[in-house]
Amino acid sequence: MSQAQSVSILDRRILLPAVGAAFRKLDPRTLARNPVMFVVATVSALTTLLFLRDLARGGPDLGFSFQINLWLWFTVLFANFAEAVAEGRGKAQADSLRKARTETEAKRLTSATGRDYERVPGTSLKVGDLVLVEAGDIIPSDGEVIEGVASVNEAAITGESAPVIRESGGDRSAVTGGTEVLSDWIRVRITAAAGATFLDRMISLVEGAERQKTPNEIALNILLAGMTLIFVLATATIPSFAAYAGGSIPVIVLVALFVTLIPTTIGALLSAIGIAGMDRLVRFNVLAMSGRAVEAAGDIDTLLLDKTGTITLGNRQATSFRPLKGVTEQALADAAQLASLADETPEGRSVVVLAKEKYAIRARDMASLKAIFVPFTAQTRMSGVDLEGSSIRKGAVEAVLAAVAGQADGAAVKELRAIADEIAKTGGTPLAVSRDGRLLGVIALKDIVKGGIRERFAELRRMGIRTVMITGDNPITAAAIAAEAGVDDFLAQATPENKLELIREEQAKGKLVAMCGDGTNDAPALAQADVGVAMNTGTVAAREAGNMVDLDSDPTKLIEIVEIGKQLLMTRGALTTFSIANDIAKYFAIIPAMFLTFYPQLGVLNVMGLATPQSAILSAIIFNALIIIALIPLSLKGVAYRPVGAGALLSRNLLIYGLGGILVPFVGIKAIDLLVTAIGLA
Amino acid sequence: MTLNGWLQILIFCGIVLALVRPLGGYMTRVFAGERTLLSPLLSPIERGLLALAGPAAREEQHWTAYAVSLLLFNLFGVVLLYALLRLQGLLPYNPAGMGAVGPELSFNTAVSFVTNTNWQNYGGESTLSYLTQMLGLTVQNFVSAATGMAIAIGLIRGFSRASARAIGNFWTDMLRATLHILLPLCIVLTLVYVALGVPQTLGPYIEATTLEGARQTIALGPVASQLAIKMLGTNGGGFFNANSAHPFENPDNLSNLLQMVSIFAIGAAFTNVFGRMVGNPRQGWAILSAMGILFLIGVGVVYAAEASGNPLLQSLHLAGGNMEGKEARFGIAMSSLFAVITTAASCGAVNGMLGSFTALGGLVPLINMQLGEVIVGGVGAGFYGIVLFIIIAVFVAGLMVGRTPEYLGKKIEAKEMKMAVLAVLCLPLAMLVLVAISSVMPSAVASIGTAGPHGFSEILYAYTSAAANNGSAFGGLSGNTPWYNVTLGLGMLMGRFLVIVPALAIAGALVAKKTVPASAGTFPTDGPLFVGLLVGTIVIVGGLTFFPALALGPVVEHLVAVAGETF
């Protein structure tokens, strides 16, 4: 699944089966999904019958009609081949995933509390069953850790061999079926039945088995079908026009004109482009639950990014203790350390370390102090300990002040605020510390903005995307970091509620919003966002709510996801433009050839100087078929996206695919004509 | 081509451009129901008529109700006009004693005037009574134009409103278009035409004795009033058979200039109405630029072709431009310009015989109509026509900026695409299929006036003109046969209503959508890039369909003439 394992476009393991698949896809039921190709196959079948009739009766120009027939079928086969190659790449990845889905034996717990279990096949597990997974066991199905902590090797799905920690409670409680517990043991509640696990879903997604046409694809198909109909009218009326002029046109020539005019190029490559877009995400270790989500990614107007881990390095470090008047630094450091002893966050640990290094306060054992840890929650925005007869709290300034309201005296509150503001203004984060309702002082934490992130945001701005930093910090700290990182806006003192509110507000303005998250409290916002990327390390709720999962749990990937979405849409537009622009040259190749017998004067329109009417028609149809093959790599790789603003991007693409689409077939058809004439095909 | 000729063309363009902003501003206020200079005079009439009509004439309508009102109104118009034509012999204001018009011709004429086509398979002065001309044709000239304007306004509201349900009220929009825009302008224009020598009388035809002593009947009638709306409403149906080539219908160069400006005035101003209503006049100017480019190319080709003359005559060393079928008082430049204007807009009035133009000079009017008359176009009709192309252009190219397509913040999705494709499809259907049948049907082929490719062009032109709701005739084809009367009528109905209904459906779909705010990632639709893209899309999507037919008509005719052959 990692980049190294991905398969190149021209891999023989993909190309050979794709040839077979191209023939299998001639099944009318499969072809009917693609209106343009279905029409080509239908007229090809018709002309083949006419050819066979002529063969039996001994009609004229058999060699010529045989070749046209051959290239008509090649057109269909090349389209099938393009789709098969795109699917083949997904299949190769699905195969490697399937290896992880080996039959496992599960240790199903017989009671809710004990460790007695019975061995059952993994497939017999039902949602809600409890299982025990010990070191060396494969986790039998998706679930949530309800007790214990273990290191788990998730290489089977992420390709990353370094083990990750999975533990009960918090945001790292989800485990995935098919991954292996390396040490310790966990008790897991099963959340997915056999066949509906995350791994199963991944397999069907990368295989493209569940592929539905996306809204934009449907609209494009309508346009392509409409153009096909227009050209039915344009070509089907030619025989009577010719009859008026006293001439007649062979059916095979009309069919050749028709097939070259209808948008076969984009019709052939449309589904390959869609599959390749999903595939590009998969190779990026991001799973999109639907093609619709990938399309939406291209449209994103607002990107909500969590500050921590995305904009700043994850670990905020405590840099100083700032006591209030009448409190010693030593006392503050002592209280701060006590409050942080059980706090496993990097911030918490840095407080313990700072107290030890600067004030030589040794870390103490929670159990011997008979201390009860009060964990951080998104609502209280505080944590701390309850010792015998004493309680220490540390947390966001406003939260601590709210907790001590009525107990602390006004002067202390004012002083604390002043210190906090001073820290915040420099981009630091103040954490207030209180003991038994008395304010002690402030811990200063410092954020470190990631290198290069400023440039990324500037790039996003050029793409027309507004970035909003989400942080639990107070507004002053947030503003300082936002300015340092170069985001467009920020949401300070974020709670799950106001995050959701922000998304709704943006959407009400007609904007599309992307965000990523991992916690259960992120789930509503993830579900509300147009593109919600859940971290693989996140909770089951988060993974269910989002429409994409990032297996590497790297929030900065949102930027790449948007680029991949844009690339998908651009590739579709570029090839449609190219396909339609091609028609001009095809008219100039076929129209003079078609009418030459009764209006030789129209030979002037043969601007390419094609050798004979037959070679002209043959060259046009060969070009039309070969261009599909030639464009397969582009449709799989995608048109390169550059963050240069829409106007510049459009003029560049119009120049390449619009103007190029007009000119390339003139050159191509002429070259094929030279070749066809040289080897005597027509 | 002469400098003088081009100067006259540029003066025309300058006047039209100068009118865009004031007229656009006035029309915007009228359709918004805001106060204008003429409100004190006209608003009481408007309020009175709407009160008389009841609340249904004022309530905001969903697009389906809007479309149903429009279709019923037009159906009523067809029935009324048909009855009038059939019964004119029994009705007053008939000094020349014209009898009933035949059923097929009545159908053709009724449909023709209701669809704003004004294809005329009859000669006005030899077929119709004054009452039919005034109560039948002139009334339809007003309301068919107002219908087109109402549709355009409905569609513009699809863009300017967001998350709404209704696109306006058809009755109110149509009434305002007639009362505040068409009527005042026509009154002024009528008086000017009368001053320039156009007759306006209910008196009988005049009997005159010529110098040789022969007796001649000089047809008269209420010409000036019909002439004003015929041009301003891009109707084009002449009072006289010779249309604006007739000295009573177009006496001099000043009346000619006035007529040409009237054809484009409202259509061009609609781009400005659009720009104002969507809050960015540049959007309107961009659309007008695309129209302008296509227009000037057309004028250049026709003028060059006509000025260089007939290759067959030149091979006989007869130098000079092609004056065949042109009025000497207008000359080559103004006849070429008129031909391009009348087919670019959906007018169809002519001041020369198009069939006598050179092959290339006749090719451009054909292409203008086959593109769907989106180069300024009919009043309102040209605007909703070009919006269909904009939707297709934005859909295909808009993807290339990496966003799902949108225009002015409205997402272009499957429904809009379906309707745009349907509307674009109906023109080749109505034009090509009917031509294909007629060109192999011996009785239909018998109507043509010239052998060879030119005869084919005659048939092609007739159906193109009908389906595009233009109404200009190429000449040569005897169209007053049951076959042509009925099929041309069908072509007009298809070309009108198979575009109108999808256009209103698009308005209904768009009006319900949110408006996505523009960002640096949004493809700008008010600059030269968009103009170029739109021109390319119109030419490729709109024009390529007709390439085979054009190759067998005017193109081959030209090549044959260059080779010195005739049929």
UniProtKB/TrEMBL annotation, chain A:
Keywords in alphabetical order: ATP-binding, Cell membrane, Ion transport, Magnesium, Membrane, Metal-binding, Nucleotide-binding, Phosphoprotein, Potassium, Potassium transport, Translocase, Transmembrane, Transmembrane helix, Transport
Gene Ontology terms for molecular function: ATP binding; ATP hydrolysis activity; magnesium ion binding; P-type potassium transmembrane transporter activity
Membrane topology: Multi-pass membrane protein
Localization annotation: Cell membrane; Membrane
Residues given in the record as Mg(2+) binding sites: 518, 522
InterPro entries: ATPase_P-typ_cyto_dom_N, ATPase_P-typ_P_site, ATPase_P-typ_TM_dom_sf, ATPase_P-typ_transduc_dom_A_sf, ATPase_P-type_domA, HAD-like_sf, HAD_sf, P-type_ATPase_bsu_IA
TM region(s), chain numbering: 34-52, 64-82, 218-245, 251-275, 587-610, 616-634, 654-681
Residue span(s) of domain P-type ATPase A: 105-207
CDD domains: P-type_ATPase_K
PANTHER family reported for this sequence: POTASSIUM-TRANSPORTING ATPASE ATP-BINDING SUBUNIT
Protein family: Belongs to the cation transport ATPase (P-type) (TC 3.A.3) family. Type IA subfamily.
Entry protein name: Potassium-transporting ATPase ATP-binding subunit
Organism whose genome encodes this protein: Xaviernesmea rhizosphaerae
Gene name of this polypeptide: kdpB
Automatic annotation (TrEMBL), chain B:
Name this polypeptide is given: Potassium-transporting ATPase potassium-binding subunit
One Pfam family linked to the record: KdpA
GO cellular component: plasma membrane
GO MF assignments: P-type potassium transmembrane transporter activity; potassium ion binding
Annotated keywords: Cell membrane, Ion transport, Membrane, Potassium, Potassium transport, Transmembrane, Transmembrane helix, Transport
Subunit structure: The system is composed of three essential subunits: KdpA, KdpB and KdpC.
Chain segments annotated as transmembrane: 6-24, 63-85, 134-156, 177-196, 257-274, 286-305, 330-350, 357-376, 382-401, 421-441, 483-508, 529-551
Localization annotation: Cell membrane
Species: Xaviernesmea rhizosphaerae
